[in-house]
Structures are given as C-alpha cells and as structure tokens.
Amino acid sequence: VQLQASGGGLVQAGGSLRLSCAASGSIFNLKYMGWYRQTPGKQRAFVAGITSGGNTNYEDSVKGRFTVSRDNAKNTLYLQMYNLKPEDTAVYYCNARLGDNWDNYWGLGTLVTVSS
Are 60 and 47 in contact (CB under 8 A)? Predict the structure, then answer.
C-alpha cells in the first residue's frame, strides 16, 4: 500500500490549504484514514480522521477550522484547512488502517508552513 500526500505549501496566517492523500496498491477493507502532524523535536500527533462509514474526529485545536473527508471510490483522503495559524506549521502525514488487523500504513509527509 502506498500513500501519496500533496497540497502542502506556504500560506499566511488566516489562509487556507487543502491536503490530499491518494492510496494505491493492494487496498482492501480500508477501515480508517487520518492525518497526523509533526514538528521538529516533537512526536507525531493526531489531527483528524475518518472511518469508512464517514464518522470523523478531530484534535481539539483544529475543530471548526479543519474538515476531513474521503472519496472512497478514489481511495483519497482530504484535509481542508481554514483560518490557518502559525502553530499549524508542521509536516503533515497521511495514515491508513486496513484489514481485520487494522494494519498501519504511513505516507511521506507534506510540509505546511504558516507565516505570521
């Protein structure tokens, strides 16, 4: 399974970005997809996720600003980010959980930089 994230970039505070993550390969029983982020010296942290049935959850600091969605037909995950803040600056990683064992897969990150 390969996960390809895209859409990162440089944006001013208050701006918007949309991240995408396309999953390819031996995909079956894709149970959950999510976004995590990491800054230097810190552990990777959960941002938002969505189940195959469309249930979503968010980290508290992004609630009301970020929206996670997925296109099951395209095996693609999205993260629409509004009202970005400098503290949102991080490398964002896509995560997928597949199969009965909830096997864990990670994509390469995409850098989001929010300037003040």
Answer: no
